[in-house]
Design goal:
Layout (H helix, E strand, L loop, with lengths): L2 H14 L6 E2 L7 E7 L12 E7 L14 H8 L9 E5 L2 E5 L4 E2 L12 H16 L22 H4 L8 H18 L2 H10 L5 H10 L8 E3 L8 E3 L5 E3 L6 E3 L1 H12 L3 H18 L7 H30 L7 H15 L1 H4 L7 H14 L10
Antiparallel strand pairs: 1-2, 2-3, 3-5, 4-5, 6-8, 7-10, 8-9
Helix pairs in contact: 3-9, 5-7, 5-10, 6-13, 7-10, 8-10, 10-11, 11-13
Amino acid sequence: MTVDAASEIRRRAAALSSDGQDVEGPLEGYHHEAYAFRLPVENPLAAHSLRGKLRVPRPGLLWFDRRCFASEDRLLIALQGRVSRIPESAEIADGVFLQGFIEGRTLGGGATSPRSLAARHVTQLGWLFRELTAIKPDELDDIPRVPTLTGSSSVDSDSMDSDSADDDSAGFLRGLIRFTEHEVYRRNAGVFGTLLSTLGVREQAWAELSESASGLGRRPFVLLHGDLHRKNLIVDPSGDLWFIDWELAMIGDPLYDLATHLHLMHYTKREEQQICEVWREAVEYAKPGCSAHMGHDLPVLMAYKRVQSVITDVIRTAEEIRAASEADEQALPDAARKVRRVLAAAQEQLGLTSVPSLHRVMAAYADWLESSPRPHPEQHP
């Protein structure tokens, strides 16, 4: 987003604030330019929130995850009173939404942030899974959906439609795999293909993931958050856990939400087992059958998440390095360490005999910077 555009969004936030001055931001986030500000008393959100948040999608953004709902805010409005501790949203003008700002701290970032979830937060996470599972997917039919992508002729539309069948977990995962392969990896291969290949991403990985997906059992589809990582988990001043950033919510296999959460949280084995049991009890209470075939299928979903993270982090890191100041000597080694970690996690899925050394990863990025044209990622809906 250009400086002028960012300044314009900040001016819009200031105009909506109580005094035109108290504006915080831009807030951290990949998908949106966002600002928080004190709400005037007449704002419909002021009854429950001291501050509001204006979020505007970043233009020209490359989406690494398939989306389902065209409006996060309309989804949040539909979920009010049905899902606990989520942001309140209000439409203040035609197509213009504000969210209540959740005061507190995230569970990610900062040297003093706890790495483990407190028992109270584990319970509240389980309650979230239970509430999401209890919602019938057809109760959300009025919320506009993101159109099925048809730009890749090799992707059949049914496989890209996550809610084409209400228990086809194998088809759901194959659709996600094809999205990552065609709409992220292949569509951007002209800019990032050589870099990905140098770091060990093999063409065979997609076929192997799809073959593994074919063996998944059936589970009834439910509403998923889709992005439950530490920075989307907020602890408020009272110590309660809130769940923000619902732009990747979708209807699909309930086990995918668990796999995504485990992959992003980096729990210890003991903590992972505890979360799995809390999740299983929660979804089975709300809708029996949601944890069917969990033992066999969870590792398959986790394998996809590891490969997806490689594609996502390699490309995002390339964009960050290119944008970093030349004076920032730590940008390249810090980025290389991050990429090396995701390569190590996906070593088996990528068929790597060894994880590239830090020097090799840095050299791959240095070569890419010298030879690659400036990237222009396509914007996805």
